[in-house]
């Protein structure tokens, strides 16, 4: 009898230790947002340092999967959909892209992370602790932003005062906004502890102070969208409709009109606050439709938005005459500023439908929205105006909220047999091992790249080209590395090899400057027809740019095509200037000289 009591005590102690270990491991994953390094240590250290911390944290987290999975816990349809979505991206990636990518390796590690959070969320105490950690992380980021605003901490962007530990205010604001509805819910709760309510109020106050200063309209709209159901939830205007399985809020006509007016006013105010930016996003979304038309069902391939966007935008402007305002705001973006549009471009309609089913499954079979759903709504709304799924801390937050939001309905759940759990554990460990093996050893290469970039920036191209060549095998998935390497080769007269590297860059991006550089290489090699073609492509992708026209003008001038040179000079002089600069004035002076002579 005594031995049984001792055994039970040992088991209880083990379970308590296990409980705290799981919590600490998951908290370490959430703390990825605070990890950064200076550019002298790692290239783009504010971004890349997070990769390695996250990969190491997921390795630790994955060790808890066997202990949790072999407990009798049910699998929800949301879990199946998450696995299906990840599998679809994998198949899409290998069939339509296949190039190595940091984005792809990080995505793989999201799968074991989701499983651990999902299993941990079945313990109500651990679930509440995780929500508290989310609030603490958001509170720390909000305070960090306030310190930057008042000059007590440095910003990580030359143009903005507030970035938190992000590279610009956009994703930072989105991260902070995710905590606003959660903090509001905690502040208004009557069932939580005093600590949790005070934590909610402190976070809400800090977010309310920093978000207006960060000037992100998408974050404001997303935060409001998440707070509306919180206020509805605590209001008395509810009733149950028998034909539905969830509660439907009912307002009188006056309240509906007031809510609609406020919504319209907020959207209009947000539009006119940064009108050019909003118009630019409209052009991006319109041009993206051209890319969707090319591959509507399965998309262009995961991670290939920037690679296909250039041709799509060129097609958009060539198909018919667009307004001068649209031409003026066109650019070469890295993101669609709408994750649903970008997802359709990369993964097709099939991928978008899978994603909508996945997120929608979190709201099915629930009697009312709960704490986690408010913040999930916020990040989904933010995704309609920004690029949260391209920023690692926001992806981590999304996976946490998704895993915490899957409802525990018995009709939509089932228990896996033991043999299938064993296979599952093997798959999880294999995915984690592969992802970590691809990411963690690359830290040394990123560190070395930082040193080589110093050589590149001081125009020591011969030395830089040699160093880039030694790093090429490891960093060939980084488009900015490829650009610097190709430029170094070009500056040392290795034009053919330079263009080969530029071609690899075009697997990841479509910056018109790359076409300009390739045109310069062809020009140096005496292949003027290909040079002309490259300059024309650059001018078509972003039609408001002057530089490709200048290069064409000089090409015609140097090859004695005088009439073409004068015609291009006239076109350059007539083109409206988006931002006046010394370079623009010098190009215009050269154009006038060619016309006069």
The share of residues in helices is: over 70%
Strand content is under 5%
CATH architecture of the domain at 442-596: Alpha Horseshoe
Large-scale geometry: globular
List keywords for this structure.
Serine Threonine Protein Phosphatase 5, Tetratricopeptide repeat, about 70% helix, about 0% strand, about 600 residues, 26 helices, mainly alpha, two-stranded antiparallel ribbon
Textual characterization of the structure:
With 597 residues, the protein is mainly alpha-helical. Among the domains are: 275-362, no CATH class; 442-596, Serine Threonine Protein Phosphatase 5, Tetratricopeptide repeat (Alpha Horseshoe). Helix content is 72%, strand content 1%. The strands form two sheets. The protein has a two-stranded antiparallel sheet with strand order 1-4. A two-stranded antiparallel sheet has the order 2-3. A hairpin with an 8-residue loop joins strand 2 (238-239) and strand 3 (248-249). The longest helix is centred in the first third of the chain and has 29 residues, at 2-30. The radius of gyration is 27 Å and the shape is globular.
What is the element layout, followed by pairings?
Blueprint: H1 2-30, H2 45-62, H3 65-69, E1 75-76, H4 77-96, H5 102-120, H6 124-149, H7 169-188, H8 194-214, H9 217-234, E2 238-239, E3 248-249, H10 253-273, H11 275-294, H12 305-319, H13 324-329, H14 339-361, H15 371-382, H16 392-405, E4 413-414, H17 418-439, H18 443-457, H19 461-475, H20 479-491, H21 495-505, H22 512-524, H23 528-541, H24 547-558, H25 562-574, H26 582-596
Antiparallel strand pairs: 1-4, 2-3
